[in-house]
Structures are given as structure tokens and as C-alpha cells.
Amino acid sequence: MTTIKLALQKKGRLSEGSMDLIRRCGIKVQNGIGKLKAEASNFPIEFLFLRDDDIPGYVQDGIADIGIVGANVMVEKDSHVEVVHHLGFSKCRLSIAVPKDQEYNGIQDLDGKSIATSYPVLLKKYLDEQGVTADIHEISGSVEIAPSIGLADAVCDLVSTGSTLFQNGLKEVEQIYKSEAVMVATPDLAEDKQAVLNQLLFRIKALQEAESKKYILLNAPEDAVERIKSVLPGMRSPSILPLAEPGWVSLHSVINENTFWENIEALKEAGAEGILVVPIEKMIL
Ligand SMILES: Nc1ncnc2c1ncn2[C@@H]1O[C@H](COP(=O)(O)OP(=O)(O)OP(=O)(O)O)[C@@H](O)[C@H]1O
Ligand SMILES: O=P(O)(O)OC[C@H]1O[C@H](OP(=O)(O)OP(=O)(O)O)[C@H](O)[C@@H]1O
Ligand SMILES: [Mg+2]
């Protein structure tokens, strides 16, 4: 069978989420420390461990067939790759921040000022849209230090918890791009490789589908079943099994976790007892 090449970040904010996803897809890989290429033992996939900035280019050129990268990097590199799936981890935002004591009334305040960033393309696009001209100072890391050492008036960098901004005396004033990890593919992927990618996406979607769902089991008197079904609208057609005790049944169904917490009191009042809510690992619809 054709092997597909997947480019992953070697070490950083994407690597744990990427490897965890691969593992949960049931794909077994052993990558010794420092080994930059590895093959799975039970799926036709080869892994290339790279710097994240290089991933869009490698996928665009077909050196890797697919890759996992932050959407922010994909857009910044203006690469011609196809986003085939949103993966929901490494969520962050690209934001402009200024020293916390500085008065800020809007983006116009940055006209004529200097902004340090590792994302000059995304920043320039935003400033152009806002009609603001600023001096973009590109640096490759530790961006948040820039104002305190007199390198720039403001910064534009990734924010997740906001702790790095806080620790460096900065406040977030504009959010310019929302990002998460995405799976990208070479445009016009060969048919046999597309088939392998489809198998991989099938597994990923089954995992994602299961994430917000739970399996619920509860006991109830037979005459309470209709009431219980109306309390949990997500419960489309539950399985109903007789219990050893006459007149009692066990209801099994799949629910949205949020629905459950919103309705727990009403569910008990409707007559449900011995409620168990258990995680679902994979879900194929
Ligand atoms: N604090 C964060 N929380 C969540 N996701 C983040 C965070 N910081 C960055 N990311 C996402 O993870 C990607 C990789 O971030 P990381 O900081 O590991 O990159 P890097 O230092 O450029 O790594 P490399 O050495 O591979 O070039 C970013 O492009 C972004 O999509
Ligand atoms: O809002 P926070 O949760 O504090 O996260 C934001 C920080 O995370 C990223 O850097 P990272 O820690 O990955 O280090 P790096 O500069 O080496 O990429 C990003 O560049 C910010 O500096
Ligand atoms: Mg990088």
C-alpha cells in the first residue's frame, strides 16, 4: 500500500497535540529522541519531524504529502496548501499588545509607531485593512520583550492564557487572527495517497465526534420513560432493557454532555435513578 508522508512539528506547542492525536487514531510509532524520520508499524504513514515554519512549504512542494501546522503559520507563509481538517488543539490568537500603563484608544494610536512581531504578513494585512501605517519590526522570538528594551512601541504575538503578556507588563488591545492546528495537504494529492488520507481523517473525525458526547445509562420505572425522554431531547431513540425487578427498565443512550448537566435535576424528578455517564472513545455515525 502507498505510504503517506506527514510533517509534524519536532518540538513545541503543536507536538504534544499532534502525537496524541496520532496515538488515539491507533497508529503506532516509535520515534527515538533526535530521530527526525519514523514509520508507523500498523498504518501506511511516515513522519517527518520539522520546524513548524517549514511545514507549509514542504507540503506545498510535495516533500511531505500532509502536515499538521498552526493556521497562523500557514497563512503567514502564504503557502498553497489545502486545509483538509480543523483539529481543535493549539488554539491561540494573534494579538497586538502595548505597555499596560500606556493609554490606548484604538488602532489609530499605532499610526507611525513601531511594532515587533514574528508575523509581519498577518500584521501588515490587518494594519492595511485598518488604514494604519506602522513600522513593522520582524523578530523571530521573545517578541514580548521588545517594548521594555526600547526595540518597539508595541508587539504583535500569539496569546493563549495571556500570562506571557502579563509577565512582561503588556496589555492585549487588538485580536487580529484566531488560530488552531489544522491538517494541510499538497494540492492535487495523488489518488492512492488521498485514499490513505481519507482513512486517517475517518479516524480523526470519529474521535472528534465522540469528544462532546457521553454514553448514559439510568434506571427508571416503566411509566417514567416518556417523561425522561422529554427531559433529554438529545436522547433520540434510547435502548430500553428490562431489569430483573418487575416494572423497571434500564435506559441507554448517547447524549451531549452539556444537555446532561442542564437537565440533571429534571431528570431525577422524572424518576431516573442510578444514573451513569461514561465517556465514549470513538463514534462512527
Ligand atoms: N501559547 C500557545 N498556546 C497554544 N498554541 C500556541 C501557543 N503558542 C503557539 N501556539 C501554536 O503552536 C504553533 C507552534 O508554536 P511554537 O511556539 O512551538 O513555535 P516555534 O517556537 O516557532 O517552534 P519551531 O521550533 O518548530 O519553529 C504556533 O504557530 C501556534 O499555532
Ligand atoms: O498567552 P500565553 O499562554 O502566555 O502564551 C503565549 C506565548 O506562547 C508562545 O510562545 P512559546 O511559549 O511557545 O515560546 P517560543 O517563543 O519559544 O515559541 C507565544 O509566542 C507567546 O510568547
Ligand atoms: Mg517556528
UniProtKB/TrEMBL annotation:
The keyword Magnesium applies. The keyword Magnesium applies. Residues 210-282 form the Histidine biosynthesis HisG C-terminal domain. Keywords: Amino-acid biosynthesis, ATP-binding, Cytoplasm, Glycosyltransferase, Histidine biosynthesis, Magnesium, Metal-binding, Nucleotide-binding, Transferase. Residues 51-205 form the ATP phosphoribosyltransferase catalytic domain. It catalyses: 1-(5-phospho-beta-D-ribosyl)-ATP + diphosphate = 5-phospho-alpha-D-ribose 1-diphosphate + ATP. It is found in: Cytoplasm. Its EC number is 2.4.2.17. GO terms for molecular function: glycosyltransferase activity. It holds the Pfam family HisG_C. Pathway: Amino-acid biosynthesis; L-histidine biosynthesis; L-histidine from 5-phospho-alpha-D-ribose 1-diphosphate: step 1/9. InterPro entries: ATP-PRT_HisG_long, ATP_PRibTrfase_cat, ATP_PRibTrfase_CS, ATP_PRibTrfase_HisG, HisG_C, N-reg_PII-like_a/b, N-reg_PII/ATP_PRibTrfase_C. Its cofactor is Mg(2+). Feedback inhibited by histidine. Belongs to the ATP phosphoribosyltransferase family. Long subfamily. Catalyzes the condensation of ATP and 5-phosphoribose 1-diphosphate to form N'-(5'-phosphoribosyl)-ATP (PR-ATP). Has a crucial role in the pathway because the rate of histidine biosynthesis seems to be controlled primarily by regulation of HisG enzymatic activity. This is ATP phosphoribosyltransferase.
